[in-house]
Every structure is written in structure tokens, then in C-alpha cells.
Specification:
Elements (H helix, E strand, L loop, with lengths): L4 E4 L3 H12 L4 E4 L4 H6 L5 E2 L1 H9 L4 H6 L1 E3 L2 E5 L2 E5 L1 H4 L5 E3 L2 H14 L4 E2 L6 E3 L7 E6 L2 E6 L2 E4 L6 H4 L7 E16 L8 E4 L6 E5 L5 E7 L10 H11 L2 H6 L5 E15 L2 E2 L2 E3 L5 E2 L7 H20 L4 H4 L1 H23 L6 H17 L1 H11 L7
Parallel strand pairs: 1-2, 1-12, 2-8, 5-14, 12-19
Antiparallel strand pairs: 3-7, 4-7, 5-6, 9-10, 10-11, 13-16, 13-17, 14-15, 15-16, 17-20, 18-19
């Protein structure tokens, strides 16, 4: 098989890139390790920056998002038993975020890909990448017991943190930066009305909690948990009790509980690989960088990488090499700002046992300063809505 761009991974980065390229007349094939049903069963991000919403519109998949996405103009910070509103809209010069699940984004992109008749190969277990230091790279995999090969112009590595693309880069050419946090998030989804109209981020002596949502009837809640915890140790009752204990009295009273329809644990990590291009192999999204979910930046960074990659590949086929040459540095400038913000939100809101009582006091002082200082809240607001593509 021959295509212009072979895209590894059918997560939001790979599918969005495929759609944008297709609309420019650039042929592409997507290869995905997992089944389509598995990809759609993963519950992940929920908060989209305006730049991500705009890009999904350009890809022609903005219709349901416009109709069903929930615009949010503020968040609440809860500490010392009280909640404080951050006026994201007012402090960011009129910007907002949209709550719309990653699962829905993926669904819309898969439907558009299918409607356009584009090739997506699911459940391909053994993808390997070759010759990306030449003008004609190839991707190999097995199908029906036979080795298959795709010859292409470019390989886009959109296969997440554990994917094969970054791992295929020759040793010594990649610089990585990493911080692993000593805790995780336990998340549940439930068909119950959200406890508040806006997201609540909680700093509590027992640990962080987050009240989020997917719709007016579906809630997404998280509590900070230990890395040693096991999912079976967390019954629904234990989860709801723990969440209630971390909320202020009024929210705890109002919390509506019900059976979980999904429950999962995720470790927290900050990670950046540099650069993002190796000849004809380009990395985008979680394949190149990971942020802890506290700032809601992961999916948005994947979308901004895709924006730059779409411009770079479009430029190449129009005869301009500049955009591709600058792809890595353009992405990384934005990535590092989001890494800083996500690390900061994580440090401010979680319990770090190794920091002791001194660390906890510093967190309280910073939270008090934050809600009293317009300057500090403005900084939070402008990062939360996203710094824009040229930042
Ligand atoms: P993905 O979504 O991981 O997709 C990669 C795809 O590649 C496939 N793959 C392979 N395919 C072929 N061959 C191989 N060898 C392969 N190896 C892997 C995988 O099966 C998968 O389908 O990466 P992508 O597309 O870069 O998208 C990134 C986002 O998924 C991620 O950044 C966000 O989910 C992070 N995130 C959040 N981001 C936000 O912007 N806002 C949020 O509110 C937010 N909340 C979250 C989050 C992530 C979370 N978890 C579970 C880590 C909340 C949580 C709890
Ligand atoms: C989510 O709804 O999954 C979510 C929202 C905000 C975050 C992280 C996750 O900061």
C-alpha cells in the first residue's frame, strides 16, 4: 500500500491530523494497536480550550460539540472548608473553555473518517517503522498472518506515551525530561447531576479532589490516591465517602451519588521528549509529552501539535519546507509553558507527604494569596483557557 502520511495511533491526535490532512487533499492511513471499541471505551479528558474547539471546527467535526458542549466561564477552588470562584472569563479578556468528553471528540472524528471512506486499520499489534531517515519511509505490520508494508512520505507518531514511534528513534538522538509524582488519580463516571455548574478543584489535608462533568446529567469525579491502591479496594461507597470528606460542607451536602459506570486509576507524570522530528518521522501529542491532568492540558496540547503538523505537512506539499523545519521548536515552546502550568497546579493542589507540614502551610499561603490577588488569578485564568497557538 502507498499513502502520503502513515499515522500511527487512532487517539485524538492521530484522528484529528488525518481529518485535517484529508480536507487538504493529503492522503493518509491510520494504524491503531487496539480495537475501535477499546479506543472508544477510554474515559479521559473533559476540558477543551477555544483553540481546540476551533481546530475541531476546521476539521469539520464541530457540529455536535457546538450543540452539546458546555461552555464554562469559571472554576472554583476549595480549601480550608470554603470555595472561591475564579472568574476565568472576566480575567482572560472574555475567553472560556468547553466541557466535552474526549470520548465524544474521538467518536465524532471516527464518524467523519468513516464517512470520508478513509482507511483505518484497528487491532494491529506489531507496527514497526523503517527508513524515516530517507525520503521513502515504510511502516510494516502483520494482517491475516501476512507481513504488510505501507510506503509513505511521512510517518506521524501519534501513538501515545507507550507507543512504538518514540521508541523507534535511534538511541542518543532524543533528550527526555521527566517527573513522576508520588500519587495517582482515581476517577469515576456516574449518571448523576454534577454537584456544581462549574468544576471544583479541591486542596484538602486528605488529598486533592476534582468535581467535573460530561453533561448536566453525567458527573466525572476524581480523588488523589496512593500508587499502591488497587481498583477493587475502592468500592463506590468508599469513593463517595472519601470525596464527600474532601469537599466543603455545602457541596458535600448537595453531592448526589449513584452507581459508577466507569472507574479507573491513572498515575501522574510530567514528560517531554525533544526534538519532535527525526527526518520523516514526526511525533505529536502524548507520544512526545505528558502533563499531569490537573491543568486539563493534555488533549489541548495534542491538538496544538496537530495544528502545527497540519501546517507543516501542508507547507511541504505546497513546496515550502519552512513550517516543517520549525515544527519541533514551535510545538516545544507551547509544550513547556503547559508543562509549567500543569506542574504548578499539581503542586498547589495535591498532598505531598514528603513536603510535611511546612509544605502544606506554603500551599495554604499560596492559595490565600491566589484568591486575594487579581494578578495571580489572572495568571491562572490565562493559562487555564490556553495561551494561544503562537505562545
Ligand atoms: P492517546 O489518546 O494516548 O492515543 C494514542 C493512540 O495510539 C495507540 N497506540 C498504538 N497504535 C499503533 N501501534 C502502537 N504500537 C501503538 N501504541 C499505542 C493507542 O492505543 C491510542 O489509541 O494519545 P493522543 O492522541 O496524543 O491524545 C492525548 C490525550 O489522550 C491525553 O493527553 C489526554 O487524555 C490527557 N488528559 C486531559 N487532557 C486535557 O486536555 N484535558 C483534560 O481534562 C484531561 N483530563 C487526561 C485527563 C488524561 C487522563 N488520564 C487517564 C491519563 C484526565 C485523565 C484521568
Ligand atoms: C475531566 O473532566 O476529566 C477533567 C477536568 C479537568 C481536569 C482534568 C480532568 O483538570
Amino acid at each position: 500500500m502507498r499513502t502520503q502520511v502513515a499515522i500511527i495511533g487512532a487517539g485524538p491526535a492521530g484522528l484529528l491530523l488525518g481529518q485535517l490532512l484529508h480536507r487538504e487533499g493529503i492522503g493518509n492511513v491510520v494504524l491503531e494497536l487496539r480495537s475501535q471499541a477499546h479506543v472508544l471505551s477510554r474515559i479521559r479528558a473533559g476540558v477543551l480550550e477555544q483553540g481546540t474547539v476551533d481546530l475541531l471546527g476546521k476539521a469539520g467535526v464541530g457540529q455536535r460539540l457546538q450543540a452539546e458542549g458546555l461552555p464554562h466561564r469559571g472554576i472554583e477552588l476549595c480549601f480550608d472548608g470554603s470555595r472561591h470562584r475564579v472568574d476565568i472569563h472576566g480575567l482572560s479578556g472574555g475567553k472560556q473553555v468547553v466541557v466535552y468528553g474526549q470520548t465524544e471528540v474521538t467518536h465524532d472524528l471516527m464518524n467523519a473518517r468513516e464517512a470520508a471512506g478513509l482507511t483505518t486499520l484497528y487491532a494491529v499489534p506489531d507496527v514497526s517503522l523503517h527508513g524515516f531517515d530517507t525520503h521513502q519511509p515504510t511502516v510494516r505490520y502483520t494482517r491475516d498472518g501476512k507481513e504488510q508494508e505501507i510506503v509513505c512520505d511521512f510517518i506521524a507518531g501519534c501513538d501515545g506515551y507507550h507507543g512504538v514511534s518514540r521508541a523507534s528513534v535511534p538511541p542518543g538522538t532524543l533528550q527526555t525530561y521527566e517527573r513522576v509524582y508520588p500519587f495517582g488519580w482515581l476517577g469515576i463516571l456516574s449518571d448523576t447531576p454534577p454537584v456544581s455548574d462549574e468544576l471544583i478543584y479541591v486542596n484538602h489535608p486528605r488529598g486533592f479532589a476534582l468535581c467535573s462533568m460530561r453533561s448536566k446529567t453525567r458527573s466525572r469525579y476524581y480523588v488523589q490516591c496512593s500508587l499502591d491502591d488497587k481498583l477493587d479496594g475502592w468500592s463506590d461507597t468508599r469513593f463517595w465517602d472519601e470525596l464527600r470528606r474532601r469537599l466543603d460542607a455545602e457541596a458535600a451536602e448537595r453531592l448526589v451519588t449513584g452507581p459508577s459506570i466507569e472507574k479507573s486509576m491513572a498515575p501522574l507524570r510530567s514528560f517531554v521528549a525533544e526534538p519532535l522530528r527525526f527526518g520523516r518521522l514526526v511525533l505529536a501529542g502524548d507520544a512526545a509529552h505528558i502533563v499531569p491532568p490537573t491543568g486539563a492540558k493534555g488533549l489541548n496540547l495534542a491538538a496544538s501539535d496537530v495544528h502545527f503538523l497540519w501546517q507543516a505537512l501542508g507547507g511541504h506539499y505546497r513546496g515550502s519546507a519552512t513550517e516543517l523545519e520549525h515544527y519541533s521548536e514551535r510545538c516545544l515552546a507551547r509544550v513547556w509553558k503547559a508543562e509549567r502550568f500543569s506542574w504548578w497546579m499539581t503542586s498547589l493542589l495535591h498532598k505531598f507527604p514528603e513536603n510535611g507540614a511546612f509544605g502544606q502551610r506554603l500551599q495554604q499561603a499560596e492559595l490565600n494569596y491566589l484568591v486575594q490577588s487579581k494578578a495571580a488569578m489572572t495568571s491562572l485564568a490565562e493559562n487555564y483557557v490556553g495561551l494561544g497557538l503562537e505562545a
